[in-house]
Amino acid sequence: QVQLVESGGGLVQAGGSLRLSCVASGGTFSAHAMAWFRAAPGKEREFVARISRSGGNIYYTDSVKGRFTISRDNAKNTVYLQMNSLKPEDTAVYYCAADRSILTSQNAGDMDYWGKGTLVTVSS
Prior knowledge:
Blueprint: E1 3-7, E2 10-13, E3 18-25, E4 33-39, E5 46-51, E6 58-60, E7 68-73, E8 78-83, E9 92-99, E10 113-114, E11 118-123
């Protein structure tokens, strides 16, 4: 059983930056692909970014390409999401997820473990 704990959320002005962290425990971190999802108020959870076990393969949803960067440190059991040039539409609860599969799913239903989320609010 893998436990995931996110941190780094907060209130930021449009154009600003935040870095989210997600620390994993209770399992073999390097055996899991990791992903970030987000849920805006009143909306369903949506895919943001995914990184493979080794970090060699990375995927982003189109709306964050060029602004967000996902990375991982397997020695620290941590995955990061660097968010730059933030927009009000990025306001959401951001969730970290772990996937045991070798496939490259961007579907929330395919993730095996979830954190409780961290709130990011971007003011205009």
